[in-house]
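#struct-pred
JK: can someone run the complex with glutathione? inputs below
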Amino acid sequence: MILHDFLPSGNGYKIRLTCAKLGLYYQLKEYDITQGDTRTEAFLALSPNGKIPVLELDDGHCLSESNSILLYLAEAHQSDLLPNDPLDKAEVTKWLFWEQYSHEPNIASVRFWLTHNAMTELKEKMLPERIQQGHAALTLMDDQLSKQDFLAGNRLTLADICLFAYTHVAEEGGAYQLSDYPNVQRWIQDIQAQNWFIPITHRQ
Ligand SMILES: N[C@@H](CCC(=O)N[C@@H](CS)C(=O)NCC(=O)O)C(=O)O
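RT: done, structure tokens with the ligand placed:
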């Protein structure tokens, strides 16, 4: 497999973490998204959406959308990261959909804007609302993690890998302080203590 990726990306990191947990080897092909590397003809032939991550399978099939790739990897490798029982599975996928709508736009986008000098007049206007929504997302996670070890129960699932990716770097850019969310901090440490854990900067 070839993972087309940009190392600081949390969306790409979700795939790298899942591969680390499953013991899967892939070749990493890096792109600089700040230089338009994903908008070239060659990249658009892999994924017309022009965004990393893209996972190119050995038969040439290209998968995009990070959470769809997570589901593919867990199902293809029959991993307990995704339960078989439909109800338990829905408890996991709920977090994957929630991440894309309620977490990623407020935590990941804000981090990118503030760390990549990407502010515009429009983004300045949107920022306070995004930060407020980001705090709401972190509060929801913190409440859940005050009641159980992991997001979808007492064992680690795709929900945790998905949400860990951007949550653990939420402070970058200065919009959020994770010390405001002690249960989230405990959960981050628990994931970092897994024997398969790799940091976001790790190259395979
Ligand atoms: N919903 C997509 C989002 C992918 C995405 O926004 N990728 C960003 C980096 S994290 C990107 O490639 N941006 C480059 C561009 O839009 O040109 C996913 O979860 O994979």
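RT: quick notes.
The chain has a mean pLDDT of 97.
The radius of gyration is 17 Å.
JK: thanks, will look after standup
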